[in-house]
Amino acid sequence: MRRTFYIVGPTATGKSELAADVAREIGAEIVSADAFQIYGGLDLLTAKPESSTLAKAPHHLIGTIPLTEEMNAEKFRRAATCAIEETNSRRKLAIVVSGSGFYIKTLTHGLAPLPESDAKLREKLNAMSLNELRSQLAQVDPEAARKIDLKNRRRVVRALEICLLTGKPVSAQRPQGGASRSDPHTGVFVFRDREELYERINQRVETIFERGVIEEVRGAGVTSATASQMIGLREIREFLAGKKTLPQCIEEIQRATRRYAKRQLTWFRRQTNFVPLNLSFLTHNEAVKWISLRMLSKAGTRDD
Predict the structure, then answer these.
(1) Distance (Å, whole) CA 13 – CA 190
(2) DSSP state of 39
């Protein structure tokens, strides 16, 4: 059994710093499962950990693929599994850190064997409006239409594509390649009171603008369809094109990030059985100590 512990939760909770201090405390290594921090470049926009944080413990899957490359859950699963196994081969515990629920699920539950994208079908689906896509998905797979983010065009297109190529609902696809069920004792779901979390989000967005995120985006060049889904990328590009003012741009990114955090909170509460930990009631050092002790006790019961 792989020796892995998960620290998951919404954006701006403080997962990166917390995980780095826990890893330093117990001699573990960190495997990032962030859908956008895996890309090289756009460090401010994707809220990559500071260099001082990265220096506390070995980190994997941060800035490892170019912005021009498409990314998907299966690619991530293979890369993360390899990083975990390599970490374990050094007799180290792997701490998987993420706010990307679907990427976490690929490790805890595996993935169904799904077909590759079909160019002709994808072209046809891309020509449809989002409302048309939603309507068709609701007809062929009502369960998937209830579960996925219907505002995310890319996910709606992919779900519908899978249905049409396999002749089966996405919801009927059976996972392979992961654990049958996540162990409730192998992870912690960290969060904060909503008012505090939203304030942290608003402040972080203001900070990245003060530190030069506009110039970072200006120099980014071409980005793949998946990389282009980063919150803030479209808004800043619209600002650079003169389509909105700077205050509008900042406010829109803050609002989009808060909405994303709300979806993350809902997903982790419903989809995982990791132990919840409200960081609003603990100091940073208290949280580090609590998680470290829990990890060491569980690692001891599962030691190979």
Answers:
(1) 7
(2) B
Dist CA 73 CA 86 (whole Å):
20
Give the integer Cα–Cα distance in Å for 100 and 35: 6
Torsion angle of the four alpha carbons 20, 75, 107, 96, in this order, in degrees rounded to the nearest 10: 0
Q: Are 151 and 162 in contact (CB under 8 A)?
A: no
DSSP alpha helices (H): ranges in 112-193?
A: 119-126, 130-140, 142-147, 153-166
In the chain the first and final C-alpha atoms are separated, in Å, by 8
CA angle 62, 67, 71 (to 5 degrees): 75
Going along the chain from its start, the domains and CATH numbers come out as: 4-111+178-302 (3.40.50.300), 119-172 (1.10.20.140)
* CA–CA distance, 153 with 126 (Å, rounded to integer): 9
Successive 10-residue mean pLDDT values, the chain, 304 residues: 85 97 96 95 96 97 95 89 94 94 84 72 90 91 85 87 85 54 68 97 98 97 93 98 98 97 92 90 96 79 47
Running DSSP on this structure, what letter comes out for residue 174? P
In eight-state DSSP terms, residue 82 is H
**Entry pTM:** 0.79
CA distances, 265 to each of 130, 190, 194, 196 (Å): 25, 9, 10, 14
